[in-house]
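Recap for those who missed Tuesday's class. We walked through two folding examples back to back. For each one, the amino acid string is listed first and its predicted structure tokens come directly after. Nothing is annotated here on purpose, so try labeling regions yourself before you check the end of the notes.
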Amino acid sequence: MKKTTEEKIQNYFFFFLFLSSIFLVAVIFTPFINSIALSLVIAVIFKPLYQRVLTELPNYPSLASLITIMFIGVILILPLSFLSAQIVNEAQNVAVTLVDADTETIIDESALEIETAVQTVLPNFELNVDDFKQKTSSFVLSSALDNWTLLKNGTITAAHTILGLVLSIIILYFLFRDGKKFKKYITHYSPLKNKDDEKIITKLEQTVNSVIRGALVIAVIQGFFSGIGLLIFGVPNPTLWGMLAGIGSLVPGVGTVIVLLPAILYLFFTSQTLAAIGLAVWGVVVVGLVDNILMPYFYSRGVQIHPVLILISVLGGLLTFGPLGFLYGPLILSLFFTLLEMYQPIVMDK
């Protein structure tokens, strides 16, 4: 039965309104996409905790959701707040130190230490650092001033950050309380089969757990133990460098060595040989064992995606989407592979 011209116009107008509404909803939600994504991630991670609280209060899902959020605040938000404040304080100290430091004198002293050590093996060894001193001095000064400006201007975004945090807490409350309802809405309105919707949602949940409980948890633990080691053996600003060590641990083949090795060299060239040896042992025994023991355990329970692809997705996500890109990248990659698995049976049926 052919459609009349009036019916076609009505259909076209309906789809125009529908697509326009999708676009406008996307525009409205875009400023808060990170808050929404963060709430979804935390809801997935702490879903077992909420279910456990709910078993104790089966008739009070709202109260169970509120109690779970309070637990999360104690476990997650308060420590992160104190840690962030400490990192900002230490970063300011580093910036001020770099501005005030006589970089050329530091380079001369370091070069003399290296020459003395190497000349015990190669008597004619010399280092020419004149050009390097000039370039480094200007680079350090400009970088320190730029970072100091960023740190000073960072307070401007404080109100936006607080608003995003409050919104995340509100969304998280309703995700815990009404998560099953939201899931039913998605499967009901999705044009895919219910089993396919379930498969996609399950796969994405596995990805969140794998990335957070795998790479990120290991990075946090390695950063924590790196910071403890730096504190014990007297390296300045251990919280800041511990955080950078945790970030470095996300990169295979680099790891915490990117921070611990320069710290060991710093201790060695400042005549703290025992401390340098102690930090080296700490890095190999304590920090290294965290990766060797926990990494296989977490990834065996997560998604079966090659670590190289996860690394590329994490780095690409960070470059494309910013700080939360470490999560967006693996989620997009996992969605792609899930759809690819679903695509194969469709092709074979044809």
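Example two. Treat it independently of the first, because the proteins are unrelated.
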Amino acid sequence: MDITAKIKFVRLSPHKARELARQVQGLPVSEALKIVDFSTKKAAFLIGKTLKSAVANAENNAKLAVDDLIVKLAVVDDGPRLKRFWPRARGSVSPIKRRMSNIKVVLTDGKNEE
């Protein structure tokens, strides 16, 4: 059974968060939480928050044991962009794109549903 948790509109560039998401993918939940807890990146806090939310969904909604769960998928997608402008010389401007992310974590217990 697959359990999903999402966080949308996170003020973090997806490029910065994808590296950590790739490290967590395919690991048991306990190992993934260790990696997230000891990382110093801002993405680690946000991915950890999503991972803990998925674990809570598995425990409370699907009545699954936490010890059996594996991170099936950890994806960081592009969110909307805030478009800002930065002043330049002689009255001109340069566009700035403030990027956002959507983080999705899918957990599985390894058993197929029929």
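Answers for example two:
The chain has one domain: 2-108.
The longest strand covers residues 70-87.
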